[in-house]
TrEMBL record:
Residue ranges constituting the DAHP synthetase I/KDSA domain according to the UniProt record: 29-263
GO biological process, alphabetically ordered: aromatic amino acid family biosynthetic process
SUPFAM superfamilies from the UniProt entry: Aldolase
Residue ranges that the Swiss-Prot or TrEMBL entry lists as coiled coil: none
Biological classification of the source: Bacteria, Bacillati, Chloroflexota, Ardenticatenia, Candidatus Promineifilales
InterPro entries in the record: Aldolase_TIM (IPR013785), Class-I_DAHP_synthase (IPR052899), DAHP1/KDSA (IPR006218), DAHP_syn_2 (IPR006268)
PANTHER family: PHOSPHO-2-DEHYDRO-3-DEOXYHEPTONATE ALDOLASE
MF annotations from Gene Ontology: aldehyde-lyase activity; transferase activity
Name listed for the protein in its UniProt record: 3-deoxy-7-phosphoheptulonate synthase
Keywords noted in UniProt: Transferase
Length: 276
């Protein structure tokens, strides 16, 4: 067992990654695989608090949750907006968590920056250049999701748009791309994770929830991402997934959180890393 672990480590290409600090004692892109977990959308104080409590209970440090939701249909739940940000901040403070949440447009960016610790730019906005430039003027880290129909080159150029305004604290997020496959919502591009780790200074995390669209595949996809070198994961959990107001079918119940962490930790260990 030890031999094979050593072999894996020795065969790793030298990492170029420049870690992005989230807190004095936490960064993405270093030895630790950072798991960012939470609901797809902030729906209520109680729902968000239950998730945050469980995330913190096992040592998680980053809570995800959308207050502004980019929905394909305008008739779907589009998030609580400012109230959602206030809920996130209240529960994150209670459980000493950091927050990653999406800025849907330039208009929301100041508020999202004020309330969050990591500014998320969503897949649909990867080439929303005014938003990239505005995020590039902030002093907080930016999580840049890959557009679901974007090439790796377009994704990296989008990151450069952010960096061109001075903010180089960029974390890339592979969240699955649209392919001919219909059995899954998207195809998690594990190749992309390994490639950007080898060719860019940016840490890269994976989103196995949107990357698969299926709760029964999320843990396997997370394991694969960490094996490919991902520096972290962004994953959706809900106290009662069938009742989730968005992405119910890809959301794991809180009861799956311990097993999810255990499995990801086992792969991380084989890669010479730990999880948080
Ligand atoms: C999300 O993570 O909340 C989200 C909307 O994902 P994406 O932008 O990847 O679709
Ligand atoms: Mn979602």
């Amino acid at each position: 067992m030890m031999d094979s672990v050593m072999e894996i480590r020795e065969n790793q290409p030298a990492a170029l990654t420049t870690a992005v600090a989230l807190a004095p004692d936490l960064s993405v892109g270093g030895a630790t695989v950072v798991i960012m977990a939470g609901p797809c959308a902030v729906e209520s104080y109680e729902q968000t608090r239950l998730v945050a409590q469980e995330v913190a209970r096992l040592g998680g440090r980053v809570l995800r949750g959308g207050a502004y939701k980019p929905r394909t249909s305008p008739h779907s739940f589009r998030g609580l907006g400012r109230e959602g940000l206030e809920i996130l901040r209240a529960v994150a403070t209670e459980f000493d968590l950091l927050i990653v949440t999406e800025a849907l447009g330039v208009e929301e960016l100041p508020l999202v920056t004020e309330y969050s610790d990591i500014i998320q730019i969503g897949s649909r906005n990867m080439q929303h250049f005014p938003l990239l430039w505005a995020a590039g003027e902030q002093t907080k880290p930016v999580l840049l999701k890959r557009g679901f129909m974007s090439t790796i080159d377009e994704w990296l150029k989008a990151a450069e748009h952010i960096a061109s305004r001075g903010n180089e604290q960029i974390i890339l997020c592979e969240r699955g791309i649209r392919t001919f496959e219909t059995a899954t919502r998207n195809t998690l591009d594990v190749n992309a994770i390994a490639l950007v780790k080898q060719t860019t200074p940016f840490p890269v995390i994976a989103d196995p929830s949107h990357g698969t669209g299926r709760a029964d595949l999320v843990t396997a996809a997370a394991r694969a991402a960490v094996a490919a070198g991902a520096d972290g994961l962004l994953v959706e959990f809900h106290p009662d997934p069938p009742r989730a107001l968005s992405d119910a079918e890809q959301t794991l119940p809180l009861t799956a959180w311990p097993g999810f962490r255990q499995q990801v930790a086992a792969i991380a260990q084989a890669m010479g890393r730990e999880i948080i």
